[in-house]
From TrEMBL:
<dbReference type="GO" id="GO:0016746">
    <property type="term" value="F:acyltransferase activity"/>
</dbReference>
<protein>
    <submittedName>
        <fullName>Hydroxymethylglutaryl-CoA synthase</fullName>
    </submittedName>
</protein>
<dbReference type="InterPro" id="IPR016039">
    <property type="entry name" value="Thiolase-like"/>
</dbReference>
<dbReference type="InterPro" id="IPR052513">
    <property type="entry name" value="Thioester_dehydratase-like"/>
</dbReference>
<dbReference type="Pfam" id="PF01796">
    <property type="entry name" value="OB_ChsH2_C"/>
</dbReference>
<dbReference type="InterPro" id="IPR002878">
    <property type="entry name" value="ChsH2_C"/>
</dbReference>
<dbReference type="InterPro" id="IPR012340">
    <property type="entry name" value="NA-bd_OB-fold"/>
</dbReference>
<feature type="domain" description="ChsH2 C-terminal OB-fold">
    <location>
        <begin position="374"/>
        <end position="429"/>
    </location>
</feature>
Amino acid sequence: MNGIIGYGTYLPSGRVQLADIAATLGIKAGKGARVVASFDEDSTTMGVAAACTALTGAPNALFFATTSPAYADKTNATAQHAALGLPDDVFAADVAGSARSGIAALKAARASGGVAVLAEVRVGRPGSADELGGGDGAAAFVFGDSSHAIAEVVAEYSTTSEFLDRWRAPGAGGGSQWEERFGLDEYVPLIERVVKELAVDADHVVVVSPNSGVVKRAGTLVQGRLSTTSSPIGHAGTADVGVALASVLDNAGPDETIMVLSAADGCDGLLLRTTDRIIAGRQPVSVAEQLAAGTKVPYATYLSWRGILDREPPRRPEPDRAAAPPSARARAWKFAFTGTTCTACDLVHLPPARVCKRCGAVDQMTARSLARAKGTVATFTVDRLAYSPAPPVVAAVVDFDGGGRYTLEVAESTGADLKVGARVALTFRRLNTAGGVHNYFWKARVIE
């Protein structure tokens, strides 16, 4: 299982302008925008989006890396496992704790022929380096036999060192970092050692680190013959190495070498060589294209989404907590959007049913997941009274290609961008959180 056979990234559409942060806080914040997850997105949902792009079949295992888990004492990877419709004998586990967990997930996926899902919602105190220089996003990499690989693993080398550069106590709202220069001085010899051990003049070099000094000096530490890059969205925790590597795979040609260096609590090096399958195996929408497709989010709105700004909630009844027994009984429907198709008349039922609505056949159904299906808006409504952290709530009746109709909430829409006949796809989101329980389901998103 010595090669990457598929990959995918997901960058949420929200963009907070750094100028907006600067004007609000009265600080210098630089230029550009920060990539931010919406109120109904978390590391679990973004990981599902990235994995949907990467996977073409069932992997042997799923390893989910994040430092911003939706649950602290529950396996978050199992929700991804269910949303992806994976067989129950596919192992799924979380790998959490630090930015280095992303590398750990990649190593575990390579060893097992599995998929590594790296996702992060990067939260920091207002005006902090995490807020200004961070980014939210996800990446997924599927490993398999070299004969099917778009990039083979040629070599790897790691060093481990204990020193206090970046840390966050459990329950803390944001992380802390020691003086940048101290961390840089510790990391430089580790990076140099890994580069020496890999011993190649690489075509492309990726350097990522939670220490901004390392990223700033990347070009002087080691240079690729064709490119030297770091994460294009700012530091993204465990997802940092994944988004950066994916951005190189989006552009690399056949038979080119890629050296990946991740300096976090040590230094991990990975040397890849692309194959002649790289061009055909690229993800359909590149990191650069996703980055350019964002929409503005007011800074105050972003702060309220992250729970940093405690705004008056909508004066509506809050949602009830999702109950465990009905969620378990409807697992395939709730997580994988699996309906049923009548074997007698081919009518697709959403949600699943035992009795056909058309011909009345009983228990003559086959399961069918529409999680990756596309559809057309038959009609829609804009609800300004329903409870939502980002009103209004837009709901659309969707006719799916190949059969099936269902009413879904439309993600990131005010209704102004929607019309009858609009084309939509599905996106896995968090409908609400009540009593500490996250209620996951699917929403529609406009694609045309």
